[in-house]
Task: inverse folding
């Protein structure tokens, strides 16, 4: 069985800010199999790599990112050192496409964001086999898939509310995945069971996992044979994977 891919969630940001060029470079240095990052649109419709709506979450600016033009964002700095900035999607593609697997999350909610991201990806056809696009919103994935069907789209499924039992979770995951034209459903470790995995895979969908951010969660996804997972503790995940493979050999 192939070793699971370890994806650095927003890069490796223990010493540098998340979703920055430095965080992605650090992921490569540690040996991650891929990097995950978020894409939002500026006021002038330019795709940039940033997770939150509000800039004050991790930058020296304030207010929603969609009120800033790309030119204005060039003056914004991420983190406290003043040396990191918000990269554009094009910059990240130019530096990392083909060097490491890319997991691009469309934050939305603008429907046009899918086409804008697809247009940016058109210049990197040689790297499409190592790129996937994710979103929580099925409509964004359907739109991206319509423009570039060769790039797989994966649906992110949020943690289910307390009222939702396993039968509804399995049903909703499959139906939402098909609605999104998804290759895979990304689930939280708390949602993963052998029955759910069999149900989803039996309906033609893969299962990946996100927020695998503690040792117990890592051990769980490894034991369940999940082929790809996102984590913020990349080094620990790499060690755990090596130990798991050693026990299995």
Result:
């Amino acid at each position: 069985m192939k070793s699971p891919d370890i994806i650095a969630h927003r890069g490796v940001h223990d010493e540098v800010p998340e979703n920055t060029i430095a965080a992605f470079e650090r992921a490569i240095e540690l040996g991650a199999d891929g990097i995950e990052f978020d894409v939002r649109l500026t006021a002038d419709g330019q795709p940039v790599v940033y997770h939150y709506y509000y800039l004050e979450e991790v930058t020296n600016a304030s207010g929603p990112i969609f009120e800033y033009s790309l030119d204005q964002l060039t003056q914004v700095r991420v983190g406290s050192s003043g040396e990191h900035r918000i990269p554009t999607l094009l910059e990240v593609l130019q530096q990392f496409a083909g060097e490491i697997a890319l997991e691009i999350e469309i934050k939305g909610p603008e429907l046009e964001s899918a086409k804008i991201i697809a247009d940016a990806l058109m210049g990197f056809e040689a790297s499409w086999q190592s790129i996937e696009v994710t979103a929580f919103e099925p409509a964004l994935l359907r739109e991206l898939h319509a423009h570039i069907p060769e790039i797989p789209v994966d649906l992110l499924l949020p943690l289910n509310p307390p009222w939702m039992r396993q039968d509804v979770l399995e049903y909703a995951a499959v139906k939402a995945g098909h609605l999104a034209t998804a290759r895979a459903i990304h689930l939280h470790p708390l949602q993963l069971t052998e029955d759910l995995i069999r149900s989803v895979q039996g309906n033609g969908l893969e299962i990946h996992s996100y927020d695998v951010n503690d040792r117990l969660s890592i051990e769980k996804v490894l034991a369940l044979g999940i082929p790809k997972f996102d984590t913020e503790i990349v080094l620990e995940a790499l060690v755990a994977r090596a130990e798991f493979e050693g026990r299995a050999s």
Q: What stands out?
A: The mean pLDDT is 97.
